[in-house]
Amino acid sequence: MPVFCAACGCNNRRSIQTRSRLRRQWEVALRREDFVATETSKLCSEHFKPEDLDRTGQIVRLRDGAIPSVFSFPSHLQRVGVFLLYITHK
């Protein structure tokens, strides 16, 4: 059953499809071979940026759409993406 946002004028909703898409993004971010997230899979707050967390209430909550991005991957799982910037002075 979809869950709708209660804010006035907002039509956003959470459904099986949106949860499935987000779950897939989390699986990719984890870089674990053949890993499939389930309803009981959990990640601690250490794997999210501070701006991904809502600390305004008594309970720390994960903001909608937050993707885990803080990891200490072993070298073989590190992404290669080195960019070189060449500056020339005239």
Automatic annotation (TrEMBL):
Q: Where do the THAP-type domain residues begin and end?
A: 1-71
One Pfam family, please name it.
THAP
Read off the SMART domains from this record: DM3 (SM00692), THAP (SM00980)
Single annotated GO MF: DNA binding
Metal-binding is among the record's keywords: yes
Task: Say yes or no: keyword Metal-binding present.
Answer: yes
Entry-linked SUPFAM superfamilies: Glucocorticoid receptor-like (DNA-binding domain)
Tell me which domain of life the UniProt entry assigns to the organism this sequence originates from: Eukaryota
Enumerate the InterPro entries for this protein: THAP_Znf
Q: Alphabetically list the UniProt keywords.
A: DNA-binding, Metal-binding, Zinc, Zinc-finger
Record-given protein name: Si:ch73-130a3.4
Organism of this sequence: Myripristis murdjan (pinecone soldierfish)
